[in-house]
């Protein structure tokens, strides 16, 4: 259950970032955020994702966000 709360937090932060018009994201970057949200939701629906899987996905998203 703790994993679901953490993933929900990540999803909400990405949604805020995506909807914030002042952050000057390009359409391609907005599409990437949509893909990441979809991936996080998919991970959340898994019966018991391992910490390693969650860490890998969040690390991948964070790494790509830093290149924006």
Sum this structure up briefly.
This protein has three helices and no strands.
Characteristics of this structure?
68 residues, mainly alpha, 3 helices
Structure characterization notes:
- The protein is mainly alpha-helical.
- It has one domain.
- Helix content is 78%, strand content 0%.
- It contains 3 helices and no strands.
- Helix 1 runs antiparallel to helix 2 and helix 2 runs antiparallel to helix 3.
- It is elongated and about 35 Å long.
- The mean pLDDT is 88.
Helix content: over 70%
Proportion of residues in β-strands: under 5%
Q: Which segments are poorly predicted (pLDDT under 50) over 5 or more consecutive residues?
A: none
| Biggest sheet details | none
Based on helices, strands and strand pairing, what is the structural class? mainly alpha
Number of strands: 0
**Kindly state the mean pLDDT as a whole number?**
88
Oligomer: single chain
As a whole number of angstroms, the C-alpha radius of gyration is: 12 Å
List the helices and strands and how they pair.
Layout: H1 2-19, H2 27-45, H3 51-66
Helix pairs in contact: 1-2, 2-3
